[in-house]
Structures are given as structure tokens and as C-alpha cells.
Specification:
Strand content of chain B: 25-35%
Helix content of chain A: 55-70%
Number of strands of chain A: 3
Distance between the termini of chain A: 45 Å
Structural class of chain A: mainly alpha
Radius of gyration of chain A: 21 Å
Radius of gyration of chain B: 21 Å
Order of helices and strands of chain B: HHHHHEEHEEEEEEEEEEEEEEEE
Largest interface: A-B, 42 and 46 residues
Largest sheet of chain A: 3 strands, mixed
Number of helices of chain B: 6
Strand order of the largest sheet of chain A: 2-1-3
Number of strands of chain B: 18
Strand content of chain A: 5-15%
Structural class of chain B: alpha/beta
Oligomer: heterodimer
């Protein structure tokens, strides 16, 4: 994080629904997509930056997350524990639908730490689940023919040999 | 997408690639009607999906994801998710890159693939492999990636689990190249070399001490332990395969290439 930020400039972001969010520039730095936009503009960015792929609910969650993390980081020593607790609560508070929507938004905005956390959370959700579950979760149609699928299962069997299936 | 084994797993790379991949994936999804409307999360770019996969243990989850659809098969088995061995790596904190084969094997999870950098010589001795992994040479030819086992070691690699080797050269000065204890070992497109006139009769490229396991009747495919060799050069040694268990050499086929012999054979229960 750069130490040299003189005045805390406010950036305005506009979601798909047209809601405006005022964001401190230090927080906006974590939204790498937004930061790139700011860096690329020659003049100071005064008008609201439109985010055509981001909805209000997601942006508000992301900003919550970032604000809290900034607060933890600049605070006391034991911040790690508090952050972990906050993260766990944050993940639990969302349904699968909300989690998926948040990943899309975080991915678009390129919020590195949050994305790392969200991707880990999704990985935990699909871990040890069946292929069908994963397909349903992601809404993917199976594009394998039964023969192809059988063949692929056989090819990969070398790895499962000797491993206990629970 | 070019498979570049030297591609560093780097988020800044991902964001550069995101645009192109997003567009490419949308074009692919256009053919299947319902999926994009009911769940846009599948529109995630390749980089993000691979990031999710990197958190999953290869067995059984990453192989499970490969069964979801063709695109996921490509991503789940992508070299970017492989471990890499590069003797010249300076920054040991770089995730997924290891200075030696031992450290990569130690850090690997069952089902991982380890890509071994080409060029130079990797010293190996008595590396025990107890989990199912895949070792692949990163060069164009097996000659490009060499594992050498010096005198004093019984073997270069000792296998106690089902594994796969591809595109590698394994050289043993005194002991054997590959010591197979159990599991199904697949050797594809490799070069195994021992001393041309060994003093020790135990110096053979492949030594198998495995015994045949109980095979259930009516099983369509044999699942017993064995060594399965294809398109591999074998040179030197008292003989190519030494078995002290009850497996035997079968189905030997040879092709006389320009400068060498290529072998195909299996070592398994009769």
C-alpha cells in the first residue's frame, strides 16, 4: 500500500441499478479494475465511474469487506484472529447464490484478497461432492457422451487405485 | 492456448488474459442455450476457475471437476496447476515451484502432476514415492530431462504407489533406475539407462519386487500391480527387467528406430 496519499480523495462508483457509492481512494486501490481506470484517465476522475457488471448488493458487500479489512490491518496486534472470525462470518452469511454473484463481481473488479478468500470458500463447498452437485452448483450442462464419460473415468482410474474411497 | 510450462502462476497474468478468455468462453457457451441464463457463474474466466481448482486436492476432487464438462477437463488438467521442479529457482517462496524432485514429491498431494524442467541433470537417489503422482519431463524429447542416480543408491526412484512417468530419462550408475514395489507403474516415452557392462547383476533398468494381488473373477480389466511400458528406450544393465516377485514380462514389442530400439511391454500377473 502506498504511504504517500495526501488528501483522502473520494471516488464515486455507479452500479448497474444506478446506485452511487462514495469510496475513499485508499479503498478504491484494492479494486484493481477501478484503479486501472483511474490511472489511465489523464484528468482527475470527477464523474461517477460506471460498473456495468456489478450490482448494488455485491458492491456493498465488497466495500464492507474491504473497509473492515482496512480497519483490522491498521488496528491492534491481534488483528489476524479478528479478521479470521470476520471472514468466517462473512462466508456463512451468504447463500450459495450470493456467493456466486459475489465471486463474479470480485473477479470483474479484480479484488485480489477477497477473490482468494471467495475462491477458497467455493472450493470448500464443492470439495468431496459428486460431479452432479458441482454441475448443478455452477449450472453447467454435461457435454460428454456416456461413452466419453466412461472413457475419462477409466483414464483417471490410475490415480484412484489404492486410495480409500469414503 | 499454448501450454507453456514456464508460465508463472501470477495474478497479474490472469487479469491480462481475462479479457481474451472471457470472450472466447462466451463464444463457446453460445451453443448451449440454458446454462448461461440460469447460472452466470460459469462465465467466470479460465484464470478464476483454475484458481478455484488449485484449492482442491487432485484426488478425488480435481479429477471430479474434470468430469463436469470438456472445458473443465481442459482447465483441471492444465499444466498451470502442476507442480514444477526447477533447480535454478531462487525465490523459494514462489508457490508451486520446487528446487528438487524430493521437495516436490514431499509437497505433492495424491494425484498431482510434477513437471520437471529440462536441461542439466537432476540428481536423484532412493526417492520413495508413496502416493499416486505423475512425473513429466518438460522438454520436447525425453533426452532433454535427465534424472541421474549416482553410485551408492539402490535406485533412482522407488514406487510404492500407482504412478506415471512420461518424457524423462533416468540413468543409474550402479543400482537400478526404477524400483517397483507395488501399484501400477506406467512408463510412457522415456529412456532408461544403466551401465553397459555392469558388475552387479542387480543393475537393471527396471526391478519389480511386486507380487500379484488377488484378482476377483469376472473383472473386466485387470487391476493388479504391474509395470506398463510404452515407447521407451532401454539401454544397458544386465537385463531390462528383473522381477523377484511373481510378475512376469509379457507382450514385448520392439520398434527399430533410426538410432535406438523402442520397447513396449507389460510386467504383470500371468
Amino acid at each position: 500500500m502506498s504511504g504517500i496519499s495526501d488528501t483522502e480523495r473520494m471516488i464515486t462508483l455507479k452500479t448497474v441499478e444506478g446506485t452511487l457509492f462514495d469510496v475513499k481512494s485508499s479503498i478504491a486501490k484494492d479494486l484493481k479494475t477501478v484503479q486501472a481506470f483511474i490511472d489511465d484517465s489523464d484528468d482527475d476522475v470527477t464523474s461517477p465511474i460506471p460498473l456495468p457488471n456489478v450490482f448494488t448488493r455485491e458492491l456493498s458487500r465488497i466495500l464492507d469487506y474491504l473497509n473492515n479489512h482496512h480497519r483490522f490491518r491498521s488496528g491492534i496486534e491481534k488483528a489476524d484472529e479478528e479478521m479470521a472470525r470476520y471472514d468466517a462470518e462473512f462466508a456463512k452469511s451468504m447463500s450459495h447464490e450470493e456467493l456466486k454473484a459475489l465471486i463474479l463481481a470480485a473477479n470483474y473488479l479484480n479484488v485480489k484478497d477477497l477473490l482468494e478468500f471467495l475462491n477458497q470458500t467455493v472450493a470448500d463447498v464443492i470439495q468431496n461432492k459428486s460431479v452432479e452437485f458441482v454441475r448443478n452448483f455452477f449450472g453447467i450442462e454435461n457435454d460428454y457422451t456416456p461413452e466419453e464419460e466412461e472413457k475419462l473415468r477409466n483414464e483417471n482410474e490410475w490415480a484412484f487405485n489404492g486410495v480409500e474411497q469414503d | 492456448m499454448e501450454l507453456d510450462p514456464h508460465m508463472v502462476q501470477n495474478h497479474s497474468d490472469t487479469s491480462l488474459m481475462e479479457e481474451g478468455n472471457w470472450k472466447r468462453c462466451s463464444r463457446k457457451r453460445a451453443s448451449s442455450s440454458s446454462s448461461s441464463s440460469c447460472s452466470p457463474i460459469n462465465n467466470l474466466d479460465d484464470g478464476c476457475l483454475m484458481h478455484i481448482f488449485s484449492f482442491l486436492p487432485p484426488i478425488p476432487d480435481r479429477f471430479n471437476t474434470a468430469l463436469v464438462c470438456h472445458r473443465w477437463n481442459y482447465l483441471a488438467c492444465h499444466p498451470r496447476l502442476w507442480l514444477r521442479v526447477d533447480r535454478s529457482v531462487k525465490d523459494l517462496s514462489e508457490p508451486g515451484v520446487f528446487p528438487s524432485i524430493e521437495t516436490a514429491v514431499a509437497a505433492s498431494r495424491p494425484g498431482d502432476t510434477i513437471l520437471i524442467a529440462a536441461g542439466g541433470v537432476h540428481c536423484v537417489s532412493n526417492i520413495q514415492i508413496k502416493k499416486p503422482i505423475c512425473l513429466v519431463g518438460a522438454g520436447e524429447l525425453p533426452d532433454d530431462t535427465t534424472l541421474t542416480c549416482s553410485r551408492g543408491a539402490d535406485s533412482a526412484l522407488e514406487f510404492l504407489s500407482t504412478c506415471k512417468l512420461a518424457n524423462l530419462t533416468v540413468k543409474a550408475e550402479l543400482g537400478c533406475c526404477l524400483l517397483h514395489r507395488k501399484g501400477r507403474l506406467t512408463i510412457d516415452g522415456c529412456i532408461l539407462q544403466c551401465e553397459t557392462n555392469p558388475l552387479d547383476y542387480l543393475s537393471c533398468p527396471i526391478v519389480s519386487t511386486a507380487n500379484s494381488t488377488e484378482v476377483l473373477p469376472l473383472q473386466e480389466k485387470s487391476n493388479g500391480d504391474g509395470v506398463f511400458v510404452s515407447q521407451t528406450r532401454i539401454e544397458g544393465g544386465a537385463k531390462a527387467v528383473l522381477t523377484s516377485g511373481d510378475l512376469s514380462l509379457q507382450r514385448v514389442r520392439v520398434i527399430y528406430a533410426r538410432t535406438s530400439l523402442l520397447f513396449w511391454f507389460d510386467v504383470e500377473q500371468m
